[in-house]
Design a protein that fits this description.
The structure holds 2 protein chains of 2 kinds. By secondary structure, chain A is an alpha+beta fold. Helices cover 27% and strands 23% of the residues of chain A. Chain B is α+β, with helices and mostly antiparallel strands. At the A-B interface, helix 1 and helix 17 of A face helix 2, helix 3, helix 4, helix 5 and helix 6 of B.
């Protein structure tokens, strides 16, 4: 058992006396969650509030011929029955494109389907009633006449001339295509002693947040203001979008986001049913609540990762990798999701393949095509699990082909730790990475040679265990290069406003938000340290567009690295302001003073001169005693955005140790390791738990999770009985280790850690399964998730 | 769709409650909507995620698979009552200290399930803890911190003996 006591760290470069940087302090305000006193959106009720339920298309592709709602309108409790045409009059449609993804195209999407339904589960009619149960009852009475159209459900044939075009006005079903060539791939493959080629398939899966998507939209005509209580990762982005599509000014919209029951990228997009809820509130002039139920979640929460990647690697006998090639095909839904688009995941795959290695010869093509299935978009670690599994799958296949140890082939090809700044084969720029240090750390931590010896001993007894690795890089701390340059109003910068209260405590208003990652704790730690108070004197305010600096929210592993730096700088600025007041009170030079542990002290010897409470008392209540002309400023605001690098890439390596039952095909995960380098670690426990949670999400993708569609575009397993998620029993203990390479882009040097676990885990498991089965001559397994049936097929035990 | 309603009397967290409820209403909807006890959560509504876990007559049940009308005469306890009674203060503290929760949506159900295990078995090993919690879905933590916290409380409640 390891509940580690929080021990103050030894002094570091960031050190201030009583530093909280690098300490595993518990998150503030967790008791609210453990005592059942949280306030999730699904808990919110307001005066006059009504509930909406949606009649959703049972067909993947159908023309809507007629909607008959006379009976439904008479049902008990019904307030309104609203169609797509009705809502189109008060809310404008949106198109999910970004200008920097050249050629990306999509069609206008409406809050409710207009004329045609394009996936099973698309909302067609909204029923508003006094209770959710009454709204659902009335949904049963709405009669919709459809004319079924041929659905497009196979990405491989989506571009064939015979395939129907989902949006005829777009001309074809191609959403986006990117081709990239670097170095000389033809020469690379020619110079290789061996070329290995295979196809990797990734199962469509989804986030399954424990709290489904939820919104309470409250249009108040007397104030001409919309307040949306919304389970979102990006409150200011949603403020902009609600205003834009309702024809309001942004200041007429307030988005309030308190407790959010899990997000993982699911809750950072525009959902038609949520936009419909907002529009309904405007239409009906009262609060409307929508909470997706689990069945709705499966057919409408964004899906991700439905990619087929044909991939090729060239390798010399000495282990030198000579070339990479990929051809990625991914089938999104009928729309590119707004405003982040559904082109980003494929784009990331092209960006990230081969990223940890020196080989510059690279040819890539990625095509994104429309499908009559639920939409796909950015989910935790966007593109990374695909690129990592492809790259690392190829590397281990190459190692097996030339008979080299899988760690040794990596040592011979990874970008050297002292070769930075550097770049990947796609041209992505790395400030400073630590691949070799991470690999060495992992090798020692897992006692690799002993594990290999154990594996070999057990094989003689008919026990098949495998060891697999995945070296990875992770995009964190995104600058405007991610979305802003493409025209999306998604803030890359973030701000912190800090204020000394009248008793010497500090408030911090921040634009980053909390969905459980611990952003509140990290912001408090940064501020407490740079200003000079204990943590219990810090109060963090977040998730309210009326009351926080404009910011991006929490996604792409940005909250600590960007929001934390803003809080750190704001704390420093407030310290200077407070010392100016203290200096004038004490008739001392401010630069001879410091704030430590809640008191103004002599910077030289630490002797207390005056308490913060006393400074605040004088500044707020007896300013008349301050020198003439002196004005105390007890608030300070600072913003931060990375400028030197478009992204702060992190790196690491994972290893999976597992056992395959060759009779049943079951895979038992025995142990998992992750070494990662997120730069300065503000709270080690929170970083480790981000890694562990992320790893388990990746393990789910590798072994269990799959949204299965049939050829008619029907989701076959959209419930938690048939869609398997990782549960406690199947998951291994995960050992986490670190290398620390701070970014010089910020003073704190912190990079993100939220997605590293998910990025590497699927590839490591895939490699471990193939390692386990290699002596049995099994067929290569590259089609996730690796279910028992697929394992038995690979072994030739079942057809 | 006319919904049949029934009068029920029960105790919820020790307080007597008499209400008329629709026959189709689940216990967790009754607790959340009629009694404003929102600490029990609705995650899947078909018995798989465990976010709605509450105690009925001393035994944990799925609040989404239990009908409110079936609880006539029952003793129902929720996270609110069990928390206020101080029964799981140590478990809550261990979860907070070990960061055994992130978004916290599963936490009330997870705590009640863990408490049941600790009442049944004073020295559960990690395997048994994982098995007992295997009906409670947590998307955030990966479970290890939860197992650590429960193991620590078992150890502490047992006076440090394994």
């Amino acid at each position: 058992m390891k509940i580690a006591a929080d021990n103050p760290s030894a002094l570091t470069a960031l050190d201030r006396p009583n530093s909280y940087i690098g300490r595993s302090v518990p998150r503030p305000n967790l008791a609210r969650l453990t005592q059942g006193r949280a306030r999730f959106v699904s808990d919110v009720t307001l005066p006059r509030m009504a509930h909406v339920a949606f009649v959703r298309s049972p067909h993947a592709h159908a023309a809507i011929k007629k909607i008959e709602s006379t009976q439904a309108a008479k049902a008990p409790g019904v307030i309104a029955i609203v169609t797509g045409q009705d809502l189109a009059k008060i809310m404008t449609p949106w198109v999910g494109v970004l200008t920097h993804l050249k050629g990306l195209k999509s069609a206008p999407q409406y809050p409710l389907a207009v004329g045609r339904a394009r996936w099973q589960g698309e909302a067609v009619v909204a029923v508003v009633a006094r209770t959710r149960a009454q709204a659902e009852d009335a949904c049963e009475l709405v009669e919709i006449e459809y004319e079924e159209l041929k659905p497009v459900t196979d990405p491989e044939t989506a571009l064939d001339p015979k395939t129907p075009i989902i949006h005829p006005e777009l001309g074809d079903n191609l959403t986006f295509e990117r081709v990239h060539t670097a170095g000389d791939p033809d020469k690379g493959f020619k110079d290789a002693d061996a070329v290995i080629e295979t196809t990797f398939v990734f199962g469509r899966h989804t986030g399954v947040t424990n709290e489904p998507r939820a919104i309470v939209a409250d249009w108040n005509p007397s104030e001409q203001r919309l307040t949306a209580y919304h389970g979102t990762q990006a409150p200011h982005m949603m403020q902009n979008l609600f205003a834009k599509h309702l024809g309001l000014q942004e200041h007429q919209v307030r988005v309030v986001t308190k407790d959010v029951g899990g997000s993982f990228g699911i809750k950072v997009h525009t959902y038609a049913d949520e936009m419909a809820t907002v529009a309904l509130s405007k239409l009906l002039k009262r609060p409307i609540k929508f909470v997706a139920d689990r069945i709705e979640s499966f057919v409408t929460d964004i899906h991700a990762r439905d990619h087929r990647v044909k991939a090729k690697i060239g390798v010399k006998k000495d282990g030198t990798i000579t070339a990479w090639e990929i051809d990625d095909l991914t089938g999104i839904g009928p729309y590119s999701v707004y405003p982040r688009t559904s082109g980003i995941e494929a784009n990331q795959v092209v960006n990230l393949v081969g990223g940890p290695y020196t080989c510059p010869n690279y040819r890539a093509r990625a095509r994104v095509v429309f499908q009559n299935k639920n939409v796909m978009c950015q989910y935790r670690a966007v593109g990374h699990p695909i690129a990592t599994a492809v790259t690392e799958g190829l590397v281990e296949l190459a190692a097996a082909k030339i008979g080299m140890d899988p760690l040794e082939i990596r040592r011979r090809n990874l970008i050297p730790d002292d070769a930075h700044p550097s770049q990947g084969p796609s041209g992505i720029k790395f400030e400073a990475l630590s691949h070799h240090a991470a690999l060495a750390h992992l090798d020692a931590m897992m006692d690799y040679s002993a594990l290999r010896a154990e594996q070999s001993r057990l094989r003689e007894k008919g026990v098949y265990r495998g060891i697999g690795f995945a070296q990875f890089i992770e995009v964190t701390n995104p600058s405007a290069a991610f979305y802003g340059v493409g025209g999306a109003k998604i803030s890359a910068q973030d701000g912190a406003t800090v204020r000394l209260d009248a008793t010497g405590a500090v408030f911090c208003h921040t634009g980053v938000s909390e969905q459980g990652q611990g952003a509140e704790a990290v912001i408090a730690q940064c501020l407490a340290t740079s200003f000079g108070v204990s943590l219990d004197r810090v109060r963090v305010i977040m998730g309210d567009t009326d009351n926080t600096p404009y910011g991006g929210g929490t996604w792409a592993s940005r909250a600590a690295g960007i929001g934390g730096e803003a809080a750190w700088q704001a704390g420093k600025a407030l310290r200077q302001n407070v010392l100016a007041v203290a200096g004038s009170i004490l008739q001392a030079k401010p630069e001879t003073l410091d704030i430590r542990n809640g008191a103004v002290v002599d910077a030289g010897n630490g002797t207390e001169r005056i308490g913060l409470d006393e400074v605040a008392r004088i500044a707020y209540f007896r300013p008349d005693t301050l020198p003439p002309g002196f004005q105390a400023e007890l608030m300070a605001t600072r913003h931060y955005v990375p400028r030197k690098w478009p992204f702060a890439f992190t790196n690491g390596i994972q290893a999976s140790y597992l056992e395959v039952d060759t009779d049943s095909g079951f895979v038992t995960l025995l142990k998992h390791w992750c070494i990662e380098d997120c730069g300065t670690i503000i709270n080690p426990q929170l970083v480790d738990e981000q890694i562990r949670g992320g790893v388990v999400q990746g393990l789910g993708a590798a072994l269990f999770e799959h949204c299965k569609y049939d050829e008619r575009g029907q989701l076959l397993n959209g419930n938690m009985a048939d869609y398997l998620v990782p549960m406690a029993m199947e998951m291994p203990d995960i050992t986490v280790g670190h290398v620390v390479t701070p970014t010089a882009d910020s003073e704190l040097g912190a990079k993100g850690a939220g997605e590293a676990g998910t990025a590497g885990a699927p590839g490591a498991v895939m490699n471990a399964i193939n390692d386990a089965l290699r002596p049995l001559g099994a067929k290569l397994l590259t089609d996730m998730p690796f279910t028992p049936g697929k394992v038995l097929q690979a072994l030739g035990r079942v057809p | 769709m006319s919904a049949q309603s029934c009068a029920i009397s029960l105790t919820v967290n020790g307080d007597p409650v008499s209400e008329t409820v629709e026959a189709r209403k689940s216990l967790v909807d009754f607790l959340r909507e009629d009694l404003a006890l929102t600490g029990s959560h609705v995650g899947c509504e078909h018995g798989f995620c465990g976010a709605c876990t509450v105690r009925v007559n001393g035994v944990i049940v799925r609040g989404c698979l239990t009908l409110a009308v079936a609880c006539d005469g029952a003793r129902v306890e929720t996270i609110e009552g069990i928390s206020d009674a101080g029964e799981i203060t140590d478990l809550q503290a261990a979860f907070e200290q070990r960061n055994a929760l992130q978004c916290g949506f599963c936490t009330p159900g997870m705590l009640l399930t863990a408490q049941e295990l600790l009442q049944q078995n004073k020295t559960p090993g990690r395997e048994l803890i994982r098995e007992h919690l295997s009906g409670n879905y947590c998307r955030c933590t990966g479970y290890q911190a939860i197992v650590d916290a429960v193991e620590a409380v078992a150890h502490a409640r047992n006076g440090g003996k394994r």
